[in-house]
Design a protein that fits this description.
Helix content is 38%, strand content 12%. With 78 residues, the protein is an alpha+beta fold.
Amino acid sequence: MDTIAERITIDPDMLNGKPAIRGTRIAVQTILEFLGNGDDFDEILANYPSLEKEDIFACLKFASGIMQNRYEIETVMA
C-alpha cells in the first residue's frame, strides 16, 4: 500500500487500486462525486461516520494535485 497524499492511499488489493481514504474502502472518487452532486460536508460525514472533515479536504487536495499535471491530446488512427 502506498500513501500518495495526506490521508489518501492506494492498495492494489482494494477497490481495484483506486485511491481510497486512509486505507478504508471509501474511494476518493465517491467523495468527489458526492461533492459534485451538491452534497455538503455534513451530509457526507453523516453517510460515512468513520470519516473526518480533514478526509474530505484531502480528497479535494488530491484532485487538485492531479489537475497540476500537463495533458496532451493525441490523435489516434482508427
